[in-house]
Fold this protein.
Amino acid sequence: MPDMFDSFLQKLDNEGLAKRTIENYAATWSTFKKWIFQTEPRLQDAGLATQKDIADFKRYLNDFGGRGGKPATPATTNKYFVQLNAIFKYFAEQGFIPDNPVGPIKKPPAARRTPKWLNRNEQNTFVREIRRNSSLKDYAITMLMLQAGLRVHEVCNLEKSDLRITARKGMAYVRGKGYKDREVPLNTDVRLALQHYLDSNPSDSPYVFTSQRSNKMSVRAVQHMVEKYRDRVKIEHLSCHSLRHSFGHDLLSANPPVPIDRVATLMGHFKKDGSPNIEMTMIYTTPGVEDLEAAVESISWT
């Protein structure tokens, strides 16, 4: 049984889950193992945990499992239980253990999802600062996340041969694992940003974005670029992730709204069978403060 969890990680990788998601599962398992071995030093394998162990771990999270020995947040507690349930369910299905000890335990309430997108004014403030800095590369990278919904690693992995750009339309072939490959149409703003950058940056590299030291820009370099502008414009929730979230939210907030199955496909949200994962895309329908203000204002008598 020592390779149970390695087998689970291999399963996630075979299913095409993102590296960060797999790392999150590994971190959850590491936290659980550390706790249970402190609680039961004689236990040989964390995979042999019982229902009582899971219930005790839940109480530990509610009392001391957060930062600084404080209670864990609802989001953290919920994440641990969702991931532990998936882990132990796999162990049981593979016959490593007789049953899933997480299954019978009452799950923590789902944490309220907090919107993490930029409103139109924040987007404009950010883009204006990039234009003031006169960086064609920063602008092209930003537009791919903000108006095409690419993940930061998808931006870095984008090759010149993946782009088809003409005066009237454009398309980016975004490489995933297996069924997660997708084609994303590029609107006029994205096409112009990419064309201006490519024209100004002739390079032998197969990748669209390069750095001074490498023929392929790193994820950390892109994140650092966005963080640099975040510090300048003082928008605390500005990040690569919030730019992509803004793309999804803007599509669903359009008038008329883009059908959610199309948004899921554009975002690369897919189920195991390759169909659009509507549930995953629902996060972009969560109203922000401005959405709620507009809703209330819409019935004003004055």
Observations:
- The mean pLDDT is 88.
- The chain has 13 helices and three strands.
